[in-house]
Write a structure and sequence with these properties.
Largest sheet: 6 strands, mixed
Structural class: alpha/beta
CATH class of the largest domain: Alpha Beta
Helix content: 25-40%
CATH superfamily of the largest domain: P-loop containing nucleotide triphosphate hydrolases
Strand content: 15-25%
Mean pLDDT: 88
CATH topology of the largest domain: Rossmann fold
Number of domains: 2
Low-confidence stretches: 1-6
Order of helices and strands: EEEHEEHEHHHEHEHEEHH
Shape: globular
CATH architecture of the largest domain: 3-Layer(aba) Sandwich
């Protein structure tokens, strides 16, 4: 892998994932640096969520390596990778509906050397930071969908990650919520120092938010570059954006 500093990167090196005869990822190398906002895009079925699963330990690769801070972590379980500083969210928000927002976020400290009272104090700080302070004591199951997604991000931040993987964070949200979400994700990088990987179908969000975009199709890389260069790439336009589409 190449990068500004191997000690400040998370990525894959030549990863392949096969499900029977189906190749979900093929010789895929991706790199995310600390403090970077990286967008990952591609058509449905391109392998985006599979890549997040590989990086977070929910899916073991058939070939290749997962590398964190210059060390191979292939084969580690999700909780082990989380403790190494990699957090993620899911397409389907996985909150505890009968627990409060505070209890959901405090759950992010589970398995870490943080006392219960300290975990709740830190959880309140993160909830305030993400703009849900007035809903701290509400049951998660009563929240609007956009707020549920914010709680999911807050819980991931409670693990104090170096790298945060967001799997379609804007799914099901309205335009006003998307605007607030973009600002929040940018602040994650600035306030927490995380590298943030954003998988998203909302191209406006990706192109406005991310400094670099990695495009995959059929599990392979077809382009890497700035938002502007990716939008001009003929192969990207054929595979995903459409020859006539403007963003």
């Amino acid at each position: 892998m190449t990068g500004i500093n191997a000690g400040e990167t998370l990525g894959t090196d030549g990863v392949a994932v096969r499900f029977g005869g189906l190749a979900a990822l093929q010789d895929l190398s991706v790199e995310l640096s600390r403090g970077e906002l990286l967008g990952l895009i591609g058509p449905n079925g391109a392998g985006k969520s599979t890549l997040i699963n590989v990086l977070s330990g929910f899916q073991q690769p058939s070939e290749g390596q997962v590398v964190l801070a210059g060390q191979t972590i292939t084969g580690r379980r999700p909780h082990q990778i989380s403790r190494l500083g990699v957090a993620r969210t899911f397409q389907a928000v996985r909150l505890f509906p009968q627990l409060s927002v505070l209890e959901n976020v405090a759950a992010g400290f589970t398995g870490r050397p943080v006392r219960r009272r300290a975990a709740r104090i830190k959880a309140r700080e993160i909830i305030d930071w993400i703009g849900l302070g007035e809903k701290t004591d509400m049951l998660a199951g009563t929240l609007p969908y956009g707020d549920e997604r914010r709680v999911g991000i807050a819980r991931a931040l409670a693990t104090t990650p170096d790298f945060l993987l967001l799997d379609e964070p804007a799914a099901g949200t309205n335009e006003a919520e998307i605007e607030g979400l973009m600002k929040a994700i940018a602040r994650i990088r600035d306030d927490f120092g995380c590298g943030v990987l954003v998988v998203e179908h909302n191209m406006g969000l990706i192109m406005q938010l991310c400094e670099r975009v990695h495009v995959i199709d059929h599990g392979r890389t077809i382009a890497i570059g700035t938002p502007a260069s990716v939008q001009r790439d003929p192969e990207v336009r054929r595979a995903y954006l459409g020859d006539e589409e403007e963003i």
